[in-house]
Every structure is written in structure tokens, then in C-alpha cells.
Amino acid sequence: MLSDQGQDKVCRKLHCCKLDTTLRNRWNAVIAGIPEAQGMSEEVKNLLFLEVIRVTFANLVKARNSHDLPDVLTPNVSNESLSKDDEQVLRYAAGYIPFSLIKRYKKQKSKRAHLLREFLLGWKVTGESEAEEAGNFLSYTNNWINKVNRGKLFQINDDVYMFFRAMEYQTQKIMKQESVLSPNIKELLLTQLEDNPYVRRCWESITKDKLPLEMSNYLLGIFKQRWIKLRVTAFVRVYFILRKMKEKSLSKTGEKAMRKTVDKH
């Protein structure tokens, strides 16, 4: 399940392969060794080369999705399990966690804290035009945040949002079976998140080549712990606050109440 940013990366890589001289030379060498291809025009060779590249990329993406989707789309948890309101609350709640960590690391003077703070700052979306133009579900969930943003919300990019969305899918699996009042709900959720390869893959997509492995694992552990704490407490209350705010208009009191609710956790 690729985000908009992930799809852009695939498209760029696809075009790079089409223009790669080394790859094309290897293709010509393969064609030269096929008796049936002798006498084939350069135009046909080129079209065949481009088609092979396209089909190869399509199969690679399909193979990735076939690996990811079974972990996410189960009979109990499907794409329809997250309503539009769910998506919007998730976008807000997900943005709060890196926001709170940035404030925490800003107070620390170590090189480690500085590196983590700079890394998390890179998750923030500074523009607001993208969501209005794209029109897909990632843009839709961000759209409402754009409308109420007064310069204080921490808007995360799509790849980061997909990481939190993956955790939410796994969280729902447990929530459908266990009450949030269950004494071992946090342990169950942590086990579910730690054992899920899709959550890990989403995390690696936003940290690979950007953080050392030890630091990446450390930060992932913090995010899982904070997500679980937020999910079983403030998340539900924020949901109803947002619903109430949408039915009316966003007031300073409502915005303050929402921030106060999340900040307690």
C-alpha cells in the first residue's frame, strides 16, 4: 500500500531505468543472443525494452502489496473500517506524538537528542496546497486539518501517516476483541505491533538511511509506547471533540480543549 510519496518514488525510479544506458546495453546483449530476435528493428527493440521494464515494476509492486495487504486487510479489519472521521482524528493524533517528542528533545543538549529532533522536524508538512489538489484518501484526511490549522498543528507527511495508519489497523484487531478497560490491553497491543511486519516496513520506509539502526529501533519503541497510551485514552475523547467541533465551527475553546485532552497523555 504505497502513499502518494511512495508512488512518486516508484515512478521516478521507473523512468530512471528506462533511461539507464547500462541497463539498455545489457538488454541489447540479451536480444543479440536470441536467434528469433535477429533482424528486429531498433524501434521494436526499444518498445519491447520499455514494456519489459513496465511489467517488471508492476510485478514488483504487486509482490510487495501481496506481502503487505494480508497483514492489514483481514475479515475483521478492512479498508472500510476507518471512517472519514477516524482518518481525520488519526491524522491529528499522529501529528501530536512527534510534536511532543520534538519539544522533549529540544530541552536536551546531547547530540542524540539533536539528531532525533532534526529527524522528526523533517516529518512536518509546511505547505497546504497539496491536499486541496490530489483528492485521494490521504489528502482528504489532511484536508480537514488544513482548514482548522492556525499555525499550531503539526501536520505529518503521507509516509509518516501511513505508519500510524498501519498501527491503527493492528490496534483495531485487538480493540474488537478486548475492552479498553482490560488490564492487559496495553501488553496485547504492544505484542501485536511488535510482531507485525507491515508496521515494521512502514517504519523502515521513513527511517531507512536517515537514522542508525540502533537509534531507529529506540525511536520505534518510543512511538509504539506513546501510540498505545494515546490510543486507549485520549484518542476516543478527541474523536468526540472533533465531531462536536465539525458540527459547529472551530472555536478557540474547542481547539484548546482538544489540545488539553491530548496533552494529558
Explain this structure.
With 265 residues, the chain is mostly helical. The chain contains 13 helices and no strands. Helix 1 runs antiparallel to helix 3 (42-72), helix 8 (158-175) packs antiparallel against helix 10 and helix 12 packs antiparallel against helix 13. The longest helix is centred in the N-terminal third of the chain and has 31 residues, at 42-72.
In which range does the helix fraction lie?
A: over 70%
Quickly count the helices.
13
> How far apart, in Å, are the first and last alpha carbons?
30 Å
Mean pLDDT: 75
What order do the SSEs take from the amino end to the carboxyl end, as H and E?
HHHHHHHHHHHHH
Radius of gyration: 22 Å
Summary, kept brief:
The chain has helices spanning 4-19, 21-32, 42-72, 84-106, 111-121, 129-134, 137-148, 158-175, 185-195, 197-207, 213-231, 234-247, 252-263.
What are the defining features of this structure?
mainly alpha
Give the SSE map.
Elements: H1 4-19, H2 21-32, H3 42-72, H4 84-106, H5 111-121, H6 129-134, H7 137-148, H8 158-175, H9 185-195, H10 197-207, H11 213-231, H12 234-247, H13 252-263
Helix pairs in contact: 1-3, 4-5, 4-7, 4-8, 4-11, 4-12, 8-9, 8-10, 9-11, 12-13
